[in-house]
Design a protein that fits this description.
The complex is a heterodimer of chains A (230) and B (206). By secondary structure, chain A is mostly helical. Chain B has 206 residues and is α/β, with parallel strands linked by helices. Helices cover 31% and strands 28% of the residues of chain B. Classes of the chains: A mainly alpha (230), B alpha/beta (206). Chains A and B meet through α1 and α5 of A and α3 of B.
Chain lengths: 230, 206
């Protein structure tokens, strides 16, 4: 009965997600931090560039996507570091889940507390840029499809820098180049909708997300093993 | 708790980089034994515990865990499933209360009676206080309660009595005695007497 064999592990997996989400939702957690950073950056941009609606309308998707990626990166350096520093990582590694599953649970929690809330408030920011409804929808869908890749690829960087003091400064250097496809396809999907063309950016973005969520736990867990052996 | 037969380390050598921590270290303990690992700072006590837990790999030698049914386990990943860990860092989330911290581990390991674990270390009074307000000794008690809750047969303890008061030490010693009475094994790296009958392993004499 494979279902029975898998069942117990799933409940450990959910327990870990539950703990991380509730830690992130508390005071000083990363949910509010990510949302406020995202909203502040996206709102500040038009003030510095131009208030010309025709121009804003074209740059909206690119700006909002970059703001979203940076907002997700803000809390990534603590993804494993907090658990590494307080000894929780040792305990998690000795538990019933493989380190790969622990990493996947952490990716899911990170997305639930950053990528998902950012996607949900993106329509409000789209108003600032006067995006039409079709563009707003495309933006939200592209964020929904692309932000899991940010958490997943970010986890590799977070795993590599788990024991590095001020790892938050190195992490973007490792992760941002790998995330350029997300920004290109994400913003590209919105522009295609605005221009009424079909460029295949959204399916590519979704495929990129899926691939990175499936593969990056292995890379991040391998990085974590190096820290556990240190 | 899964029953254990014993734990044997044979001619273990551990090198970290160029530096050799210990060489040809052997020990053999059976179910119910406490092994007190002693030695000066830097002798490799913590590293030996991390080696047994499977975090580190020995440069030479072997570690074998015998299960209650007489099966010998040499694979480090398999061995990790028997380990209850109490490390130098307590693994307690400061934002969560002792009860929430333990509840997570009970759910993660899908076992354990949280209330009896809290009572055993006499933590009932502070169970709902955020752990950031607890003293180091109180956190150590929570860590002991977690060890009991998780219910693994091979306990690896790093400086288990540091920052505990007299009552805390007595409670911890009682927990260790009960654990061994139930057929468990305890390996503890320590600078002070454990207050329970134990065997000794001296490091740093080589």
């Amino acid at each position: 009965m494979p279902a029975l064999a898998v069942g117990p592990r799933v409940s450990s997996f959910l327990a870990l997600i539950n703990r991380d989400v509730s830690l992130a939702a508390r005071a000083g957690g990363n949910v509010l931090l990510a949302i406020s950073f995202f909203a502040a950056t996206a709102a500040l941009f038009p003030l510095g560039v131009s208030v010309n609606p025709a121009f804003l309308f074209r740059i909206a998707a690119g700006v909002i996507w970059v703001a979203a990626v940076l907002a997700c990166l803000l809390s990534l350096d603590r993804l494993f570091q907090a658990d590494y520093e307080d000894g929780s990582l040792d305990l998690l590694a000795l538990g019933p889940l493989s380190l790969e599953s622990v990493t996947l649970a952490k990716i899911v929690s990170h997305w639930l507390t950053t990528g998902l809330p950012l996607t949900l408030i993106s329509p409000i920011l789209a108003l600032l840029y006067r995006l039409p409804q079709s563009g707003t929808e495309a933006l939200a869908i592209s964020l929904l499809a692309g932000t899991p890749a940010v958490s997943a690829i970010g986890a590799i960087g977070a795993g590599l820098t788990a024991s590095v003091r001020r790892g938050g400064l190195i992490l973007p250097l490792i992760v941002l180049p790998l995330l350029s496809p997300v920004v290109i396809f994400g913003a590209g999907a919105v522009l295609a909708t605005l221009d009424h063309i079909s460029n295949g950016a959204l399916p590519l973005l979704a495929a990129f997300s899926l691939g990175s969520v499936l593969l990056s736990p292995f890379a991040a867990a391998a990085a974590l093993r190096l820290h556990l052996a240190a | 708790m899964t029953a254990l037969g014993g734990l044997r380390g044979e001619r273990l050598t551990l090198a970290r980089g160029e530096h050799q921590l210990f060489r040809d270290l052997s020990f053999d303990v059976s179910a119910g034994d406490v092994l007190s690992v002693e030695g000066p700072n830097g002798a490799g006590k913590t590293s030996l515990l991390r080696l047994i837990a499977g975090f580190l790999e020995q440069s030479a030698g072997s570690i074998a865990l015998r299960s209650g049914s007489g099966e010998t386990i040499t694979d480090a990943e398999e061995r990790a499933k028997f380990v209850g860990w109490l490390g130098h860092s307590d693994g307690i989330k400061p934002q969560l209360t002792p009860a929430e911290n333990l509840k997570f581990f009970a759910r993660y390991h899908r076992r354990g009676d949280m209330d009896s674990a809290l009572d055993r270390m006499s933590l009932r009074r502070i169970r709902d206080l955020p752990a950031q307000y607890l003293s180091a000794g109180q956190k150590k008690r929570v860590a002991f309660a977690r060890l009991m809750l998780v219910g693994r047969p091979l306990w690896l303890l790093d400086e288990p009595f540091s920052s505990l008061d007299a009552e805390g030490r007595a409670l911890a010693a009682e927990l260790i005695t009960r654990h061994c009475g139930g057929g468990g094994i305890v390996v503890a790296a320590t600078h002070e007497p454990l207050g329970v009958p134990c065997r000794h392993l001296q490091l740093g004499l080589a």
